[in-house]
Amino acid sequence: MSDCIFCKIANKDINSEIIYENEKVIAFKDINPKAKLHFLIIPKKHYNTILDIDDNETINELLSAIKEIAKKYEIEESGFRIINNCKEDGGQEVMHVHLHMLGGEKLKTSII
Ligand code: AMP
Ligand code: ZN
User: Fold this and answer.
1) Where are the domains of the chain?
2) pTM assigned to the model
3) Residues 21-69: pLDDT tens digits?
4) Which residue from 8, 66, 74, 111 has the highest number of Cβ atoms inside 10 Å of its Cβ?
5) Annotated catalytic residue within 38, 46, 96, 98
6) Ligand 1 site, CB within 6 A
């Protein structure tokens, strides 16, 4: 997707603060952090939404990234929150699937 900002980040065509990367997945700091730690974890391959992911390896790598990042930032014990905004009602603004990973402090209560 040539005009997708997260594809450009995955391809290193635009700069981001990358905190984790493997063959399938990349994670970087959110430009507008909503918590002390706020990362975005994305598959390098473009999928519009979480509903479009169709390969198990990508799902596994997303979960591995969560675990590795939790270890790296020492939030395994304190915990964190994973959020996926899906489509319009979910408030998805960037149409390249991404998991928000928030932590590093006690987060405000969410709606669920
Ligand atoms: P969402 O509303 O779930 O689609 O979230 C999109 C997120 O992407 C927001 O939290 C933005 O702050 C973040 N964002 C947008 N552009 C960039 C960028 N160039 N680098 C890092 N984060 C970004
Ligand atoms: Zn994309």
Assistant:
1) 5-103
2) 0.97
3) 999 999 999 999 999 999 999 999 999 999 999 999 999 999 999 999 9
4) 66
5) 98
6) 5, 16, 28, 30-32, 40, 85, 91-94
